[in-house]
Design brief:
The chain is mostly helical. Helices cover 86% and strands 0% of the residues. The chain has helices at 2-57, 60-71, 79-107, 113-144, 148-172, 177-194, 196-199, 208-238, 243-276, 280-317, 324-332, 335-350, 354-379, 381-404. Helix 8 runs antiparallel to helix 14.
Length: 410
């Protein structure tokens, strides 16, 4: 079992590192191409569309992962689930695109052209996330059947093809956030059409309504988790922070998300690792070792940002992003807390405590939304960074409290 787990983590880590490298390189290139006037607009649309992605997925990847793990030898039980998952992605994507298109149509009449551009970009970003949602349902099936190497290859192919499509569209057509999402969607669509014989199942809407009662806790937790990582950019965009300030802050958040992406391979297998340990004492020992490890790594990242922040941002994003170096330590402060939550969450799910964790995240997310306007007015971008770190601290402390509670299984 241990050898298989190491191989699974290795395969996932290889794929994640490849995807992270491609994504980070593309982000740096986009930062230089879009500049401070448009890069923040792109990150704003991306973060808001990523929140919409949770609705488009509807908790189906988590459920498919679970069901294929339990009934992988009887695929006839899981094919209807896959069909209903695809049906969910289709109708939610169409509905969200319709709503955002209505906003885009209304924004055309507003005096500021920025509103119209944001709305149009958001429509394309949501359509792009529909393709991402289909990709993730296929990934869930591959992981559930233990094909971690093939799943890593699947995600790597999607990342490289979409990145090449983005570069091609921006070079051949135009440089703007809207065309970034056009290229991204086109790259994923080509891969999905090319590989359709291997994954396609006709969407089935019958029986879909009865699935939602089992799916809502996963949706709630995913939405709250994303909001606690990406809500700062969304709030800064809604509060009409100047475009250059938004771009500087957004560039800092790219480093935070790159670090969390590198942690993803461990997170992908932790639930199974905790669940397969026979005794609660062994689970706690693993939990404590991992918490020390990720907290130390997060603190080292914060220390390096405090020491070499301006140099790092200048060399990564260009000279115009050098002022972001002073902001970087503030933004990275949430990293040790977020990594700790990333370890405690699968531990709590293995103990079937995901519902209180989800409500805890919702509370912290509500606090973030309520406190952000005041903190920005008082301290500017540093106030936003402090507020989202405080929200992560609330989740960290609450999750630690839940971890200390004894359960009937422990």
């Amino acid at each position: 079992m241990r050898t298989g787990m190491i191989r699974s983590v290795g395969a996932q880590a290889t794929g994640a590192l490849f995807c992270a490298a491609i994504s980070f390189a593309l982000t740096l290139w986009l930062g230089r191409q879009l500049g401070t006037s448009a890069f923040g607009h792109y990150i704003w649309a991306l973060n808001l569309a990523t929140l919409a992605l949770v609705l488009q997925e509807g908790g189906w990847p988590a459920r498919l992962y679970q069901q294929w793990t339990l009934h992988g030898d009887h695929p006839e039980q899981n094919h209807p689930l896959m069909a209903r998952a695809l049906a969910h992605v289709l109708w939610v994507t169409v509905a969200l695109c319709a709503l955002s298109s209505l906003w885009a149509w209304q924004a055309r009449g507003q005096p500021s052209p920025q509103h119209g551009e944001q709305a149009t970009t958001l429509v394309m970003a949501i359509l792009c996330m529909g393709a991402v949602a289909i990709m993730n349902t296929v990934s869930a099936r591959l992981r559930g059947t233990g094909r971690f190497a093939r799943e890593a290859l699947w995600q790597s192919a999607a990342r490289i093809e979409s990145a090449l499509a983005v570069v091609a569209v921006l070079v051949l057509v135009a440089v703007s956030p809207f065309w970034v999402f056009v290229g991204w969607a086109a790259g994923l669509a080509l891969l999905l059409v090319w590989t359709a014989p291997r994954w396609w199942i006709r969407p089935q809407f019958k029986g879909l309504r009865s699935d939602y009662w089992q799916l809502w806790p996963f949706v709630l937790m995913a939405l709250a988790s994303l909001w606690l990582l990406k809500g700062d950019i969304v709030l800064l965009g809604w509060l009409q922070v100047p475009a250059e300030d938004l771009s500087l802050y957004a560039a800092c958040t790219r480093l935070t998300e790159a670090a969390l992406l590198m942690f993803a391979p461990i997170g992908n297998v932790l639930l199974r690792s905790f669940g397969q340990l026979p005794h609660e004492s062994a689970r706690r020992a693993l939990l404590h070792r991992l918490l020390w490890l990720v907290t130390g790594a997060g603190l080292l990242a914060c220390g390096f940002a405090l020491w070499q922040g301006p140099w790092l941002m200048q060399h990564l994003f260009g000279n115009v992003f050098e002022p972001a170096g002073a902001l970087l330590p503030w933004v990275l402060t949430l990293l040790p807390l977020a990594l700790g939550v990333g370890v405690m969450a699968p531990y709590l799910m293995a103990r079937q405590q995901e519902r209180p964790l989800a409500w805890l995240m919702v509370f912290a997310g509500a606090m973030l939304m309520a406190a952000a306007p005041w903190s920005i007015a008082q301290w500017g971008l540093q106030g936003m960074a402090f507020t989202i770190t405080l929200a992560q601290a609330i989740v960290w402390l609450g999750a630690m409290t839940l971890c200390q509670k004894k359960t009937s299984k422990g």
